[in-house]
Each structure stands twice: as structure tokens, then as C-alpha cells.
Amino acid sequence: MGTGVLTAEAPPFPRRGGVLHCGAHSLEGLAEQHKTPLYVYNGNRIVERLHTLEETFADRRGDVPGSTFISAATTRTSTPSPFQHPSPDPLVAYSVKANPNLAILRLLARAGAGADIVSGGELYRALRAGIPAHRIVFAGVGKSRDEMRYAIEAGIMSFHVESAQELEVLGALAAEMGAVAPVAVRVNPDVRSPTHEFTRTGHATAKFGVSPREAHDMYRRVAAHPALRAVGVDVHIGSQIRDPAPFLRALDVVLAVADRARRELGVELGYVDLGGGFGISDGAGDALDVHALGRQVATRLRGRGLTLIIEPGRFLVGDAGVLITQVLYVKKSDKKTFVVTDAGMTELIRPSHYGGVHSVTPVRENGQDPVELVDIVGPVCEQGDFLARDRPLPLPRPGALLCVHQAGAYGFTMASNYNSRPRPAEVLVHGDHVTLARRRERFDDLIRGEPHA
Ligand code: LLP
Fold first, then answer.
1. How do 321-332 and 271-273 pair as beta strands?
2. Per-residue confidence (pLDDT) for residue 9, from 0 to 100
């Protein structure tokens, strides 16, 4: 595949006969069967995007020295599980937080993806889905000792350590367990990424990572610690970034950290992890040109003997998922037209929390309804409960179905039971098959775990 891959991609939810489809299945049919609100995922799209990234970030010249990079937490008593990933091929570690549904994780596991996790719960899911521990990296500023123990026992590929104190706790725990914990320091490169302030993580005042100077000190401590081993270097600068430049600036910073560790400490790192954050096309703008980024990353890494890891979440699942919602009422006031839907901030919080802009289209288009500027709002008792504001939309009738696009990432996973609303069902369409990936919650799910039930 060449640079035309993205433009050659088929739309994940094409319109046929006026009706949106996922594969062979009409969204109307799926909504009728599974009710609304409903998340629908296109599995073919997810796998296609995984392969796009693998191709895009591969160094096709193949001139990377064949150093064998072996990582994985090992206990002295158990058989080490060697992970050999020298390779001009990148490891795509799917960022589980974007959509942790087991059906999606299994699909990605079968397609060869690893995982980027941030909690014990995500580790549990990734392992349950069959993602091998030696392809799992663990980030996050607040890993607990219990989570670290679980990850060491599982034999994960690496801990992305975010502070000196965390390193100390990890080293003590690994020593106590008779294990050696693989470590990559997460560097804060002090790069400003052009994205929403809540999803920006690479500037110096963000809570994530440590400065290059502190990273160097931490590698010194790792080198001297019998229960720690330095295996890589990590950076992640934010999410939904459409410009390649900040990624390259961040990469330059971490490569300098790796060079200095080699030069001054004799520490040979096996990988560089560039994080995730690759922007997709949504209702607000274009996608990141991953091909341009991939080429430049491959050029910078050439000849260094470092494996590349990337941690995409949204890029893999974002536009592969939609939220189907039914129109309950159309409410006109003197100043506004509200389209009230059965989904709101409880199903998709991105519009109200991040100003996320998702395209919204009718599931069935008849070409006759007059287009009006509307607010699409949910039933939740909050003025901040909306899916879109001041949006041109063919004015729907009650009962009509709307499709909220680019909802596969940070959609269901951030859904809540606020207002005691049961969370929706999720279905995965892959090839000819439709799988119920999560059944709709019932009222008794809402009180499960409450002793006074
Ligand atoms: N790696 C790390 C360490 C991360 O923290 C994240 C996302 C990713 C990778 C994946 O980023 P992605 O490729 O999906 O952009 N809820 C927000 C996004 C939060 C992202 C959190 N970290 C939203 O809905 O925009």
C-alpha cells in the first residue's frame, strides 16, 4: 500500500438506497432488532486500519540491525517469556481505553495487535481477550502496588514509569517478588499539541511523564537496580492531533534521551514508543496524514536498532463505530429548535465534555425534509446534555433514527448510568456476522451490588 491508502478507504457506514449500512446490514434493521440507543462497530474497518498503520510505520528498507530485543517481566522461578521484536515492523499496541469491549479486543488480538493499558482492569480485559502479555505496555501516573504485582505476575512487556517514586515502588516490589520488571521511562517532551486542553499531555505542566533530565536520572537508577531493567523509552503527547509536527518534535526529544542513556550510562534501549493520538476526520476537521508522519518517523529511526511501538486508540476504532439514536420529540421554541433524542451525554459525553464534534446524519435520507439549524439534545437533566449544537439537519420526525458518527472511540467506554439510565447495547459487524458485543443493561443491572436491593 502506498500513500493513497487513506483516500482509498471505503466509508465504514455507506449509504445504500438512502439508508446507512454496516457491511451487508442496514442500520435500520440493526436498530429494530437491538433497539436504541445502540452502538454499532464495523470490525472490518478496525482490522483494515490496524494494517494501514502497520504498513505505514514499517521501515521497508529493512536496514535496521537485527538486534534481538527481548522483554517481559520475568520471575526467577518461572520460565522467562521472551519477546523478540527486533524488526523494522512496528508493534501496534492498541490503546484499550478507547474501546475496551472484549469483542473488539479479540478481533485485534487475532490480527496481531498488542495493548497499551492504564489499569489492572484493562490488563484483565486484554489478557481475557487473548492479547499476549509480552505485547502489553502499562502507562499511567497512578499505578497501585496491586496493579504492578498483577502485571509483573502476568509477564507484561514493560511498565511506562511516570515518576521517580513510582520507579522506587516498582523496584522494591519486583525485588520482593524475585522478579525483574522491564521499564521504559515516559518522557514529558514539553511539546504543545494542538488539541483540546483536556487531551493534551505533552507540555511541561501536564501531570504526565518526567523531564528528559529526570528521565536520565531514572535510567541511571534502573541500571543500578537488580530488579529493574531498562527496555525502552516512551512518550505520548495527547489525543486527536491532526498535525505531524508535534509528534516529530516529541520523537526527537525521546531519541535524544535514548542516545544520552547509551552514551553516558551504557544503557541500550530496545524500543521507542511514540504513543497514540493520531487524529481522525470528524465533524470538525481532517485526519492526521499518518503516511507523512510514518515516513518521517521511519526515516528518523533508520539504523538505530530501535523497535517502534505506537499506541493508537481512536485511529483504530473511532470512525469504525456509530451511535444510533431515535428521535423522541422535536421541540420548537421562539429561539431554537431542539431535536430530543433517546441518547445523550450518558451514552456519548464527548460533545459536552471536550466540545467534540461528531457528524450526525439521518439513518434514512429521503431528500425532502427541510434542513434547519437544530440542537440535538438528550433526555438527561443537565443543560450540558447535548450531542450537537447549531447543526444543520434535515428536520426529522419523532421515531426517526439518527446516526452519530465517529463514536467508536471514547463512546461507550465513557458512558454512565447517570439519571439511572441503563447503558446501551453494542453490536459488532464483522464480515457477514453480527455479534452482540454487550447486551443492553436492564433496571436490575442498575442496583446490582447495592446491598439494599
Ligand atoms: N497512549 C496513552 C498513554 C494515552 O493516554 C492515550 C489516550 C492513548 C495512547 C491513545 O490516544 P488516541 O490514539 O486514542 O488518541 N477521552 C478523550 C481522549 C482521551 C485520551 C486519553 N489517552 C476524548 O474523547 O477525546
1. unpaired
2. 83
Instruction: Please check whether residues 301 and 424 belong to one and the same domain.
Output: no
Q: Are strands 360-362 and 401-404 parallel, antiparallel or unpaired?
A: antiparallel
pLDDT class of 88 with cuts at 50, 70, 90: confident
Domain boundary among 315, 338, 363: 315
Task: Give the 3-state secondary structure of residue 146.
Answer: helix
Query: Is the CB of 98 inside a 6 Å radius of any atom of ligand 1?
Result: yes
Look at residue 224 in the predicted model and tell me its pLDDT: 98
Q: Which domain holds residue 329?
A: 15-42+318-446
Q: Are residues 162 and 211 in the same domain?
A: yes
What is the position in ligand 1's atom list of the atom closest to the CA of 139? 3
Position 386, amino acid = F
In a domain, 5, yes or no: no
The pLDDT, as a whole number, for residue 61 is 60
Which phi and psi angles does 168 have, rounded to 5°? -65, -45
Q: Indicate whether 260 and 348 sit together in one domain.
A: no
Return the best residue to mutate from 46, 53, 91, 95 for the ligand 1 pocket (most ligand atoms within 8 A of CB).
95
pLDDT above 90 as % of the chain: 86
| Residue 122 covered by a domain | yes
Give the per-residue pLDDT at 81: 35
Does residue 335 share a domain with residue 225?
no
Angle at 343 between CA 338 and CA 348, to 5 degrees: 110
The partner residues of 75 in beta bridges, in order of sequence, read 179
User: Could you list the active site residues?
Assistant: 381
What cell does 452 get?
Answer: 439494599
**What region, left, alpha or beta, does residue 259 occupy, with left being phi > 0 and alpha being psi -120 to 50 degrees?**
alpha
pTM of the model: 0.94
CA of 194 to the centre of ligand 1 (A): 14
The answer to which of 51-65, 91-105, 176-190, 433-447 has the lowest mean pLDDT is 51-65
Q: Are 49 and 315 in contact (CB under 8 A)?
A: yes
Tens of pLDDT, residue by residue over 291-303, are 999 999 999 999 9
Distances (CA, A) of 121 to 36, 138, 151, 179, 429: 28, 12, 11, 22, 25
